[in-house]
Amino acid sequence: MFQRFKSHFARQSATPQKSSEHQPEAIRDSRCYFRPQSADELLATPQRRQCLQQLWQNSALPEGLYQRFYLAPVKQLLGSVQQVPATPEGDWSGTGGFADLTLQFTTCAVRLAKGHLLPPGAAPETQAAQSVLWQAVVFWAALFYHLPLLRQLEGELDDGHFWQPGVCIPGNPFRFRFRTLENALTVPQEALLAASLLPEKAIMWLVTVPEAWHCLMLHLNGRPSSVPLIDALLQDAAGQVHSPLVKQGVLPTTVETALASEAGTMPETQSAASANEMKSSPPSTADDTRTLLSLFQSNDEVSLSITANENDNDLKISKRTDRPSENVAPAGNESS
Length: 336
Hints:
By secondary structure, the chain is mainly alpha-helical.
């Protein structure tokens, strides 16, 4: 039985490589086992580095918090999925397809969300106090969006032990295959995987706004969001990157319709593709930033105190213009 199980993995080498970045053959040995790579190695392709740069440019978080709340979960997820594809065929079926899909989708969703004031329909003072948190909710919902695709995969280490992609970083060379119908996982694992990716301090931040916590929990359980605009943004992003989870029949004006239902008025005409170009004047996020930083001031080892007394506008200007572009998403500065 075990030999028959192992024999299925040999077919993985025949899978065409359709991902946007072809991986060097050196990462596989003659038996078609992949060499485990670090998160920094996995993020070293030009397209993935570009995604990280765009995430940083569209984030309202100070650098230390960006490292912990955005970059660290991305690195952890990529390390736990390594080179697995997202689908058995199609655009994301190549080596590393799941990582490429997740990064491009998350980047697109965050960029689209930046063109909207969140939570929609709330008073300006509420948006000022919660805007940064709701933008982070969009990021986490997008990062976790494709976790259900990992249910169709199973892996094996070269020492014969089982490896489930997405659960942990493999400690040995590995190979993988798509599950057969009779061997398919019927129990959702997405909530468990997402919980392992959410930093503890991020959870503490989320529960300060119960509506944001509830919204993200609905996403993790595959239920409609309590904020329809976020569902619409994710679906628009899914359409733009040709996600296998895009819902058929979604109209191009989904975001505008959702925004109108939340605010009770029709929004300005704006296509999803140009959401990042919206020229509205967002409320100051100083209150939100101070609330977030207060969670860390007592026992956080990351050097966040340098931003605690800075004016929010000064922080944003410094973030966007003063630092060179190659430092926007430093791959080797991961916080624990």
